Amino acid sequence: MTVISVIVGSTRDGRFSEKPAHWILQHLKKRDGVDGRLLDLRDYPMPFFDQPVSPATPGRQPYENEVVQRWTAAIAQSDGFVFVTPEYNYGPSAVLKNAIDWVYPEWNRKAAGFVSYGSAMGARSVQQLRQTLIELQIAPIRSSVHIPVATLWAHYKGGDVDAGLAELEKPAEMLIDDLLWWTAALKAARASAS
User: Fold this and answer.
1) Residue 75: pLDDT above 90?
2) NADPH-dependent FMN reductase-like domain location, by residue (predicted)?
3) What's the rounded Cα separation, in Å, for the pair 132 and 142?
């Protein structure tokens, strides 16, 4: 089985992110051989990264924080990722960036895709995340799902979010196709290197 984790990148009250996260997760679960999992950052309330050494430091001791240990284990069990990210002030949320920063080797040599929303449909958030993920040795795929502002506003006004998401079926399928191809290639490469 290939484990793809969908990461809910917002913890705000009244957040929108869980709707597209569950939507893309359902698409993943329709694929043969895929174990789609939801990693909601509300379930991993980590402190801001404050350790004396980077997670990339060779030979460092495991971090003692129990939530960080659970988060790191969930990332280690995953073969690929879909980041569901808002755009806050031209970039991703602080809680998502912090969760990314707590981990290093467990991210390495895996693939990631993006579902985004917010100003410019979240494209600038995805652009920044791509640069961060490359530093973590994650392969960000080209295909993404950018949710139109009208669908986001439907959430806040009690409108039909599902109808807006349904219009994004084709980009969602492209994202999953590409993500699974890269995930399989990288999983095989990791296996042959060990």
Assistant:
1) yes
2) 4-148
3) 15
Question: Distance between CA 27 and CA 54 in Å, rounded?
Answer: 35
**3-state helix vs strand vs coil in the chain, percent to 5:** 45, 20, 30
Tokens 């690929």 sit on residue? 80
pLDDT digits (tens, 9 = 90+) for 106-139: 999 999 999 999 989 999 999 999 999 999 999 9
Evaluate if pTM is beyond 0.90: yes
Residue 82 in tokens: 């879909």
Domains and CATH numbers, the chain: 2-193 (3.40.50.360)
Task: Categorize the per-residue pLDDT at 99 as very low, low, confident or very high, splitting at 50, 70 and 90.
Answer: very high
Residue 194 confidence class, pLDDT cut points 50, 70, 90: confident
Cα–Cα distance between 23 and 25 in angstroms, integer? 5
Concatenating the DSSP letter of every residue in 121-157 gives: GGHHHHHHHHHHHHHTTEEEEEEEEE--HHHHHHHHT
Q: Residue 4, Cβ neighbours under 10 Å: how many?
A: 27
- The answer to whether 11 touches 89, Cβ cutoff 8 Å, is no
